Each structure stands twice: as structure tokens, then as C-alpha cells.
## 1
Amino acid sequence: MQKKSTFLPVISLLLVVFTSSLRGDEIQLKNGELLTGRITYEADDIVKIEVAVSASIKETKIISRSDIAKIAKEAPDSVAFKKISEMLPVRSLTGASSYKSMIETGPNSFLRLYPDSVHADKVTEIKTQLDEELDKVERGFIKLEGDWLSPKEQAEFETLVKSRVQMLKMEAASRSGNYNGIISAMREFEVIEEKYYGTPAFPKAVELALVAVPALGRQLTGMLRDVEYRNAEYERNKAALDEVATAQVEAALQREEANYQAGIAADKKAGIKWVRLNPRSKPSIEGYLKLAGSELNRIKEYDVEQLKLQAEKLVQVDELIAKGNYELARTKLTEAAAITGRKASSKKSSSKGSSSYIAALNTKLNDRVAEETAKEKARAEAAESQALAENLSKAAKKKSSSSEADPENETESPEGEEAEGTVEKDPQDLFSALSDSGKNEKPKEKSPSKKKPTDDEEKERPRPVTVDEGGGFSLGLIIPIVTVLLLVTVLVLKFLGIGAKKDEDEDGETPVE
């Protein structure tokens, strides 16, 4: 996943902001000292000015009017410009509505009020950058630690992106420094550990937890030491109230306790380890101290450097899957999982439904391979169907061409056969057809009428001519010869009287000649 940083475009604007921050309101003292900062309060006798001790620490000084020789206030447009400059860089995961509000109350308002300011050009540059970032957000991009991720990247590297978001939540919660913020940060750590083990966010979360938990332990120790005194002080203050006020305080305390118990029950039902803390309850504080101690020892067992190495390799696996290099991705996944001994399995490891980056990648890889296999099967089936269709088309074309080239092979319709069966054919034509069988003949043209020919038409019909092909008798010549021979035989037998004997025997009389 490529990172798209906005660091370079912003750096010039930050330099301008830093240079501007060196200037401000100035108070020249009579002893020659010059105080530069921001005047926050003015009265007839005193002036308050906020000066920078360091980059992150500011101190408010109260100066008597009698000690001031001269006051030089910063121009209003310069003060406004400083506030606009502080808008950059925009924090991660800022929404479109926040961008619009920043642009309207910042650059747009400044350019309306101070169109001729010396800072107008820089403000226009800031506005341009904010407009560009707003356009990205409206198109579905998100900003994570200076990187812009497209909707496609968010979908492709879903687990990786979600783990970074969760890590940002943990960092934001821990910045408060108080026990509530640290507990909230550890609740976020619990989510990261269960769902995003193996991501680059996890070793970062471990390092932050190793700092946050001891800080929480120190606060809890102080709270445990003072809890009895604070409770006693509360009771003394309550006793000093009248009856109505006391009833109101007790009712408020009961509502608070009911809400706390409901929250505890909800946390336990959800399986949350870092439940809510009741700072007025000694047992609650003692229980939290035990939890903090045991969790700190458990978290210390993680090898952070090993986790970082594994996370780096798992990110490579994720990128290989995105490129479609599944075989190498599977090999790398097995190697990465072996670093910490976690199996590359998609099975959940606890009743709470915990998972990890390793399991997510294994599932993702299996799904992609199955999807590719299904596509290959579909392509093969489509190719087979297309080939079959082409073969059928070729066969149909071949049959059509053959029928056009050889009309004798065409079968007549039943109606034609039935009509032709009523026509009497001349026997001599049949003999002629037999004698010429096997020879190439032109097909006879069908008569327009199936009417039987008359005697005159029969006499005028030309007789078939027997062609001597040079060798033996043709079938058309043999039949007449055999017929003549049979007639001659009958006459001879008749003449010899062979047939008379037969007649006499049958009738019992001698025929009269």
C-alpha cells in the first residue's frame, strides 16, 4: 500500500507560521526588558501577557502599568493569520463537515475582513490546500497520519487500515494523562491485541501500553492513599448542607452510582477487561491496581522488535495478495507466522471472537484463490461451450452445402411421394432404368400433371435405345430374347402333342382334331 504524504506541501506554510509566532504583542519595560507574546488582559493597573517558555509551554506574566515603558500590539490581521496557520496540518480522520467549517471560519472569513492584508496570499494558499483535502474527503478518501488512502486501498487493505484507526484512538485517549484517559487507551489496546495482532499498529500499541500502565498505577496508588480522606471530606461537606440540598446531593450520588453499576455490567457482558473505575470506592481502586500490575507483567513478555519484524513481513504478504501473487504470498505468510509461533489459521482463538492480521490474511488468501479458481472454471466452461457451438455451426453449413451440390440426395415430401404413387409407369421404362442403373443420368423433370397417357401418346413415345458398350449382352437385349425363346418352346411342345395328353387325362375324352 503506497503512502501519499502531504508533508512537503505543508512545510513551507509551517515555516511561515513559526516565523510569525516569533512576533506578537510587545511590552517594553522601563528597565529595558522586552516581553513578546500575546496580551490576554488589560486593566488600569496591570497587563497580562502570555509568553512562550518553550515550543509547548507558555507562561502568563502579570506586569504593572508603572513598570511599562511602551506597548506595541500585534496587528489584528496578524493575530487572525496565526490562528489560520494553526489549522495545518489537519488531523487524521477529519470529516467533510469539519473541513467546511474550518474553511468558512478561517480563510474565507479572513479574506473578507482583511482583503489587503500582507498575509492574504498565504491565507489563499491555506484555503487552496484545505479545498483540495475537502475534495478528497468527499470522494471517499481518508487521511491517516499524513497519508491519503483511496476507497480502493481502504477495501483492499481493510484490516491494515482499521488497525491504524484503532491505534490513533488509543494515542488520542492517552494524551489526556489522567486515569480516565489511560483506561480508555487500554480499552483500545485490548481491541488492537485481539483483532489486529500482527499489524504494524500492534507493536506501537505495546510500546504505548508499557508507558501508560505504569502512569495509571502511580495515579491509582495516590487515589488509594487519599480515598478515605476524600470520602470523609465529602461527608463533612454534605453535613453542612440544609435538608433540601442534602437530599439533592444524595439523589445525584445515587444516580451516579446506578449509572456506574450499569456501565460495569455492560462492560463485563461485552467481555471488556478494562472496566470502569469508581474513584470513591476503595475496593474498586484496589482491584484496578491488581489488574494494572498483572497486565503490565503480561505485556512486558512481548518482544517488540520481533513483532515489528513480523508486521513488516505480513504487510508484504498483503501487498502480494493484492498483486495476485498467491503462491509467494502463502510462503511468506507461513514464514511470518513462524516468527512468533502463531499459526496461519483463520479459526478464532477465543470465545470473544478474537482474530489477528495473520488469520485475516489467511482467509483473504484462501478467498482470492477460490475466486480465481472459480473464474478459471467459468472461462473453461465458456470456451467449451463456444467450441461446441462453432462445431455445430460448421456441421450445419457443411450439410447445407452438400444438399445444394447434390439435389438427388434430397428426399421428397410425403405429399410428392403420395401423388407420384398414383401414376402408372411404363414397364419398358422400368427395364430401361434397370439396364442403365449405376450410370450418370440427368434427373427426370416432373410432369406438371400426373394424368395417365393415352394409347396414341403411348405409340408416339420413343423407345429406349440399348447401347452396346462392347462386351456381352445388355440386360435390355436379354429379356426380349428370353421371351422369344419361351414362346418358341411352347409352340414346339404344342406341336409335339405333349400338352394333348395332359388334357385327355384331365377330361376323360380324346380331343377332336
## 2
Amino acid sequence: MRPFRECWRALMHTMRPIRGRLTLLCTLGLVQVAASLSFVWCSKRTVDIATGHLDAPLGKAIALLIGVMLLQVAVRVAYNYCEGLLEVGSRNSVRASVFAKVMRSVWNGRDSFHSGDAVNRLEEDIRVVIDFLVSTLPQIVVTLCQFAAATVFLFLLSPQLGWILLFIMPVAVLGSRLFFRKMRSITMDIRDADSRVQAHLQENIQRRIVVRSLGSTDSVLDRLDDIQDEVKQKTVTRLNYSVVARAFMQLGFMGGYAAAFIWSVKGLYDHTVTYGLMTAFLQLVGQVQRPVSDIARQIPAFIRALSSEDRLLSLTGLEQEKGKGDIFLKGAPGIRLEDLSFSYEQDSPVLEHLDFDFKPGSFTAITGQTGEGKSTLIKLIMALLKPVGGKIVLYDPEVEVSVDTICNFMYVPQGNSLMSGTVRQNLLLAKPDATDAELAEVLELAQAGFVMEMPLGLETVCSEVGAGLSEGQAQRIAIARALLRPGGILILDEATSALDAATEDALLAAIAARYAGSKTILCITHRPAATSYADGILHLGK
């Protein structure tokens, strides 16, 4: 758990772009306060006229009272409308900013967060933070102003009653404040447990066929019950602390109201208080107590916001890729490995002192047993990972690989890499302005012409991770997507593993014929078909 001051500074930094609009909200809130106090004055005046303590037209007093009530309604509607617009705009802006940091963060081969946890932070924690900044914080400002104004008004009417209330209610607030730190710690535990719930749900829904095939459905459900029980226990603990804190507040409110009521009754008995003044007393006590009550209710929201900001700082604090701009090499760049070594954190080396030269325009098959570092090598070449020793150079002209050189690669990763959406949307990820003719051309080259024969063609929907298509179909569409990229280096990472022998041969033959000499091709494979088209072979491992 980060220090309070660090989380508070982060909240204020998040608020900076919307300060002007928050000021507008606070201004509308202050108009509400003025209208509310005007209503108290109008109520007192109307009652005093009706009871004969004030000589003035009753009709005008009632009309003024109704006018103030309509003003309150109008300001409240305007406040809610502006608050709603600000909330959705701010949430979208912050989410886009944090998501961009996650997407552009340095990857060391192992993600820092489970995807479900990261999504929970991007959705729920951002919602909590924005709710606090847009809804709670302006209400706190307005509430404090309302408390101050109502207290001054009360002192003007009865200084003795004002002092009694100022003594009773701060004691109640201080009593509830004692539980602040403990509630913040419990809230952090609850948010972390919520993330584990989302991660568990997301992963098992995505892999439910695997779960069912292993006969593990009941154990998965039992695990969900265990995590949810933890959330429930922590929530009950927080509720217990909250109940005690609110008990302090309620005692203070009851004492304040009782003091105002008894004071007013005694004044009526002694003929020192009018019915209008009693009406004003009781309304003002409510306007003094309600702000204090509102602030007390907003303390848990403040705690939740601090806890959520703490969790978001873990995302926004991820190390970012630092690029200076795309370095695009024309033609078919060569790739030279010089004394290359790599290991994952404390693990044993995956690659050691590797030297190799992928000549410009060559077709190289990369072979080796599982775990010998073939896919790791590809990620190093694309600068998705950083070597622990040696370097990787693209040429000509010579430039060391970095985030700026990734624009040179046409990459087909292992497995099913399609996104949910239509075939067209998947293809356009590689080239957003591609024409239908270009899409049809790469589909044909990737032996995926079947797409154009489907009833919906390019608008055929792929469910999550390509569900609805066979593995072979999904692989061929992924290859077509990579071929849309303008880079001069084509990387196929087990890209034909789900294809039958005839389709694989036709695909490799088409790629070799189309890109011979014009693209540098690297093909990771366990199968002999690719080696027959290769100019050379890089074998990793023993």
C-alpha cells in the first residue's frame, strides 16, 4: 500500500485536465446552497406573516417561496446534466490514457498482471476514481460551503444554539475518523480479491472447453466460491467498522436535533421564539447536519478512490517503450546476430553467444526442439525482448533493432491470434486503409480464398480467439493479415502447424515464389515442408 500523500498527488494529477469543468460544477453547487438558504429565509418569513408576527402580503411571500423552489429544481437539473457529461468524458479519457500505457509498456517475457486483473483495474478502479473526482469531490466542496453558510446563518439567529451544535458534531466526526486507515487497508484487500474473481472468471470462461474436457468444472466452481467467500468476509469486516463510525455520527446528529428542538420549544414557551424562527431553526439544523452526514458518507468513497488510485499507479508506473520514430528500411533488410545471449530473469540461459546472418532476401528455416528458444529469438529480433548480451543489427543501412524498427516486420505468431470481430476488421489491423482488392489478394496468397466464398465474405464474424473457424482457417487469415504489412521481413512462427500437408505446401510455395529476393523470410517450423523451400537452416539446441 503506497503512502497517502503519493496516492493523493496522483488523484490531483488525474483531476488536472478537468479542473475548469469541476469549477463549473462547484459554482452550480454554490448556487444550490444559496437557493437552499433562501428557501429557509422565505419559509421563516411566510410562517411569520401567516401567524401575524410580520405585516406583509402573504401572496407575494408564497410566490417568492415557489420561485426559490423552482430555482432549486432548475439548478439541480443543470448540475446533474453537467456532472453526467463530465463523468463519461473523464472516464473515457483516463481509461484511454492508462490503456495506452499498458499497451506501450516494456515486456520482459512475463506479464506483470493477469489480463483479468488489468481489465478490472481499467474498468472498476477507473470508475471509482472518476466517480470520486467528478461526483464526490465537488459535493465535498459544496457541502463544506453549505455547512459554513448554514452555521453563520444559525449563529445570526441564535449564537447559543450554534455553539452547542459546533461542539456536538465535530466530536462525532472525529470519532468516525479514527477508523480511516483500517478501512483503507481492508478496501485494498477487497479490491485485490475482486480482481482475482474477475481473473478467475475470465480465464475459465475463455478456456471452458479445456476445463470441461479435464472434468474440472466442479473444482473451478469451488475455487470461485473460495475467492468470493474471501471478498464477503473482508466486506463484512469493513461494514463492521463502518457501522461503528456511523454510530458516532448518528449520536451527534440526534444530540444536535434534540438541542435545536428543545431550544425552540423553550423559546416558544417563553415567547422569545416565533413559529417562523422555530421553522428556520429546525431547517438550519438539518442544513448543518446534512453536510456533516454527507461528508461522513463520502469518507468511504474517498478511501475507495485512494485504494483504486494506488492500484492504477501500478499500471501507469509500468516502464514505457521509448522510441524516436519509425526507422523503415527499404527492400529486404538483412538481420545479423552478434554474440546474442538471453535468459528470463533468474532462469538458465535460453540463448548463449549466438551468431548468425540472415542474408537480405533469403528464406531461412529455424528448427530445434521445444524450449530451445526459437520463439524467443523472434521476439528478440523484433525488439519485443531485450538481449542480456550481444546485439541484433538490421542492414542496409546498419541499425540496431529497437522499438523503432518493428515497422519492418510482417509477423504471424504461434497459435490462433485472431481478434473478435469480422474478418475485415482483423485484416485491417495490419493496414487500416487497405482496399477490398488488396484484402482479396492477400487472402488468395495465404490460401484463404474460402473467406470470399462464405455467405458474408469479409463480414464473416470471428468470435473471441477466432471461434467459429477451424484452426487452419484462422491461421491462414492471420497469415493474410501479416502479408498486408509493408515491412521487408516476413516471420512465420509455426504459422502452418494446423494445416494439412497439401495446403501447407501450396502456401509455402506461393510465399516463396511471390517474395523470392524481395522479402527476408524467417520460418520457425518442426515440419520438413518449410526446409525444402529454405535457402538455409538455423538449428537451435543440441
## 3
Amino acid sequence: MKIRLVQLNPIVGDIEGNTKKILSYYNNAENDGIDVVVFPELSICGYPPMDLLERKDFLESVYRFTEKIISATGKSTIIFGAPTENKSGVGRPICNSAIIAKGGGIVDIIHKTLLPTYDVFDEFRYFEPNKEFKVVEICGVKTGITICEDIWNNENEVIYHKYDISPAEELKNRGCEILFNISASPFTVAKPELRLQMLQNHAKALKLPIVYVNQTGANTEVIFDGDSMCVNPDGIPTSRIEIFKECLADAEFVNGNLTGIQNATIPGREERIFKALVTGLNDYLNKTKIAKTVLVGLSGGIDSALTATIACEALGAKNVYGVTMPSEFSSGGSVEDSLRLADNLGLNMHTISIKSLYDAFLNQLDPFFKDTNFNIAEENIQSRARGVLLMALSNKFGHIVLNTGNKSEMAVGYCTLYGDMAGGLSILSDVYKTDVFALSRWLNDTYYSREIIPENTITKPPSAELRPNQKDSDSLPDYPLLDKILKLYIENQADLPSIVREVGNEEIVKRVVRLVDLNEYKRRQAAPGLRISNKAFGYGRRLPIVQGWTSDI
């Protein structure tokens, strides 16, 4: 049995466009003599479709184009993901399904059993779960078909659920000879290793080969790496596909094993984060059609420098516009660093001083501010003046503003509402400050092998430059300590006693955790951000703004 894995990058809601892609890949596979062509979960509508699934006209379009795919099939069998109507008369109106078709008709339809409701997933809101298990005969082979979460039930990482049933084991018990899984499994930094380990665990335990086909690309905040592959009963992977790329790989099922010639290398931590963010930005603009160009406020700091570098990689430097907006507190070095960065990248660069704007605000506020000390109010006026300028340029010329804040700052509220939080997309909102430094160093030393981000930008103490001689460390713990606390609290969901035992400074831990809890109202108003962790800020981390709960020792 010759199998083709098609690692598709669909657009959510572009049912006709996705269908054209599916049929194009299918027709090519049939011409190549492929027996089975496999596409990702919900490939006809893209993942995640969210409340589009509640629209009658959306579902009718899905059903219509599903029939178009089925009727176009010939000798090759196709397996693709689509919402299907729940005809049982009870439960939710639709199922998350894998459709198996050949010769212009349906061979079978398999529904998803395990419907995740954690992190960015909310499938039980829409779909009715499968309750019966069966194998499907394809090319004379007893085939088990599962959908994404159906094979993630044996993992113990904090975000994963334990289920009382294993669809893969159920299919093995029914005589399955090969297991297929069609997925829309989002990227996280640790996902490639975790995914391979999960597939190996199943393959070895079940003594079955596994064909795993995952979505790639990005839809809004959620990035998909693909990383489709085959895994043999001995746990050895084959036909592994390059991540963040729409492409395909072939395998052949012979005598209980899968053979393939393609085996992509998975990049290291910095490279995979960089590629994920480039993919996220590129697809956000290409799929939404909001804008073709982006605008970045360049402060001379490392966050805006990294954001601009990612933007140039994703869109080309000619489509990136940088603006440096110095105030009386900006150091000469910061302006020079911004100009040097722009020159290194070749992006479009402008300078607009905010001094006169800042003075005008202070003059208007003088009747209210007189006899008070300079504090955060005056500091934030500068940030908000910059935000107004960026948004004005965005409105006038059609650029989308890229927010440059990192996850460490977002976590503790070290950012200004309607100021440096302005933007249409936040590139680094799920990237900790320590990773910002690591990425910047890796870009210079390895990826470009020359100075792109100025050395002074990387080595100077981080500062918002909103008052004389200001440093981030005046308000926050050093970033390595801060990020360690944040990862334990946000990603690992550790309680305070556990964090204190790990970190050893109760006072700092309590202050950081308190800041995280207090600043939920800010994050709720933030730009959408690209997700690279299992607990990104946004709709995957849902906490009430108004709450009486306080984390304590």
C-alpha cells in the first residue's frame, strides 16, 4: 500500500480554496500511482473554525464541498478531515470526522472520540463524540483511523487530560494492522520531541505502524508546525516532513512496516521559535489580507529589534517600516542603535521626535498635575504619544502596527495600555525576555553569521527610557529569575510553596505572582499574540479579571 502524507496549510473558512488544494494534491497522487492520500484534521475548513461551526450557511458550504471531493475520487483512496452532520438525533449537531472515499463514493466515516477542552481547544462546545469503534478495510489492510487527541490520551504533561478510553487500543483490539492519525496539533517549543515520544509510545505498545499527518501554517494566534511522519512498531520514524512547510512525503506499507526516503531534521530551540514566529506573521497577513506592510516602533531596545528582524524575514525588508520616536529621556545610543538596525536590515526608516507632543500634554495637564511628583503618569504619556503616532501612520498608509512587548513584561504588567501595547499583532507576547536575548544572539552568531541586531542592543541593560537613568531592573527582578518564576507559575501551574522551594526567595515570588494576577485586565485588552507555549496569554489561558482568589503560601 503506497501512502502519501499531505501536510496542508489551510485557511480557516476558505472552504472552496482548501477544497481546490485538496483535489490538486489528490489528483497528483493518483497520477503518481498512490493508493492512499491522507490530509489533516478538518482540512476542508481549517483549524480552529471556532464559532463558524455554529453558522448554518458555513456548514452547508462544508457539506457541499465535501461532496465535491468525494465525487471527484478515483482509484486512490482519500482520507481527509471535515465536520459531518450528526444524524443520531441526540447530542450536538455535528461530529469532527475523517472521511474515507474512493471511486466517487464514501468508503466510511470515522468520528473523533476524544474532544479536548483545554488550552486553545474547545471542541466539546461544537462536536458530538464518537462512541463506537471499527476498523476500515483499505487496499485489503485493516486500518484504524484516529483524529488528533485520540492518540494524545497517554501523556502526562500538565496540559494534557487523562481519559478512561484509548481509541488506539480499541482499534488494535479489533484487528487493526496499521494506525492513521489526522491532526491539527498546534506548535509549542517542546512539541516535536513530545510528539515523537508519544507516537513511539503508541507504536511500541500496540506493535503497530502509525501514519501521522498534521496541519501546518498559522491561523490567527495558533501556529502549526506539521511535523508529519510515519513511525514503525519498533519506534523508528520515517518519512518525517520538514516543519512549518506545506509539502508531502510518501511511504509504503509492506509486511507490517512503513518505508520512506524522506526524514527531515528538526531544528534546535532558537531556530524553531524563529521559524514559528516568521510563519505566524506571514500567514496572519497573507490570510487576513488586513495589510501588506507592517510598522514597528524602534526604541533601540532588543524587543523591537527582534520584532523588526522577524518582520523582515517574513515579509521582506521593503514591506517593513521602522519609526524611532525619541524623547528627552532617550539616550543617543538608542537612536543610533535603531538607525544601525534599520541599515543592517534594509528596512524603511523614519524619525519623529515626541518632545513637543510630550510638552503639549504636560501643559494641558499642568492645572491637575502641579504640586505633584513626577511618576508613572508622566512616564506613560510618552508611551501613549508614541502609540498615537504609530496608529496615525497605520491609518494613513495602511500598515499594520506590530506590538513589540515580550511575555515577561506582559505577565507582570510592565507595559502601558494604549501606549506600547498598541498594535494589530503581538509577535513576542509568548516569548520570555531570556529567550528574546537568546534568539537575538543566535540570529547574529548563527543564522545570519553577521551583526544584524546591534551588539550594543543585546548587551546594554534593558530600559523603557521614560525617566532619567531608568532600568528594567529598578522595577523587576533580573530577567533570568523573573522568567523562572513565570514559567513555573504560568506554564507549569505550580503553586506558591512549590515555586518558593524551587526559587528560594519567598518575597520576590509573592510579588511576581501578585503582579501576574493583578494584570489580567491589561492582557485582556492586548493585541492578539503568536502562541509558542502551552500557556500563552489569550483565549488559551482563561482567568477572570474580577476575582477574590489570591495565590498565597
